Amino acid sequence: MAAVLEAPLATSMFSSKPHNTNFPPKFHTFPSKPTLLTLRNTHPHSCVANASPPQDPDPASDPQPDPNRDRRRIVRVAWEKILRWSRSWRSKAKTDILQRTNKVVVLGGGSFGTAMAAHVANRKAELEVNMLVRDPQVCLSINENHCNCKYFPDHRLPENVVATTDAKSALLGADYCLHAVPVQFSASFLESVAEYVDPGLPFISLSKGLELNTLRMMAQIIPQALRNPRQPFVALSGPSFALELMDKLPTAMVVASKDKKLANTVQQLLASSHLRISTSSDVTGVEIAGALKNVLAIAAGIVEGMNLGNNSMAALVSQGCSEIRWLATKMGAKPTTITGLSGTGDIMLTCFVNLSRNRTVGVRLGSGEKLENILSSMSQVAEGVSTAGAVIALAQKYNVKMPVLTAVARIIDNELTPKKAVFELMSLPQVEEV
What we know:
Elements: H1 2-14, H2 36-42, H3 47-50, H4 67-92, H5 97-100, E1 103-107, H6 111-123, E2 128-132, H7 136-145, E3 161-164, H8 167-171, E4 176-179, H9 183-193, E5 203-205, H10 218-225, E6 233-237, H11 242-246, E7 251-256, H12 260-270, E8 275-280, H13 283-305, H14 309-330, H15 335-338, H16 341-352, H17 357-366, H18 371-376, H19 383-397, H20 403-412, H21 418-426
Parallel strand pairs: 1-2, 1-4, 2-3, 4-5, 5-6, 7-8
Antiparallel strand pairs: 6-7
């Protein structure tokens, strides 16, 4: 009888079709071994029938997942993957470039040229690093006191850094050349030493800017001045103050070259535990960003000097970044270069930090000083002052509206006062952001 009564219940519980009570229930043949269902009905007073229903486990005995622990584990795994990738990449990279390099020449005795000379010399004690300088006093200071008395009097240079005023001896037998002469003087200087330059000597340009009259970048200036269109060329750029490089603080830069093999070679030559070097093929993007960020830094300094506040600073710099990107892409650069290390990274450093020479010029302009007095009191070249003059010509050539950078050029040319420039910029049409 129990089997007869249980059949409809089982059917209604486990069948996908609803049980129809208009028909008599079907009889089922149960297995010889009683099931739990039949035991409960056949033996109502058995232990099984009186057993308490299953209870939920004690929460205390089953600890809940810890979201913080899981998150930490995910972060740790991700970091370990990065480290494994890094070790694998380093093991595959060739490291014999430095061993095969015997001499590096640095053209220019300024702050960044000195910092790079010290950096390269520290990479290998047997490496000969020659600095070609024009100031006899600086030359004497480097050779006798192992310091650049003009720019780094308190920093001792490595013993393998030597200085000379003789271009022929400096360039003779060099494996690499670091060019650190200001842009506006580069062409005439290189023309004067061209006869001593080996046609296969790779030039690593540290100079940032545009030649005022010709609008040329260093990628054009160097091979044309040396009368060798095949002169190997690399541009080195990125957020880097010479003082911090001298102090061996962590720094990251980019080497850009059309020749991928050359870019990788220079990367191996310069990369160290405190200088990280990335490579790029976008020479135009790297050079344009490196040149125009100096002009934007003057604008940022003017905002600071006029005490216009953080809101205007953020608005101006972001607008300037857009203008640099508009022009660079019109000239064939990649947008990702402008938003990367040699673009946005260098812009942030130059616009917001007091060590920036160009920002200092802007601060003093915004405070009411005359440009002539500012420049005459400076011992270093602020490339943005000269480069600003090329901005208007480039904007016209490529049909790009660049209100912020054009305003800087007009201030430098005494066509606008900083106050008037701010008023005109604020009066521009309010258009959709691009």
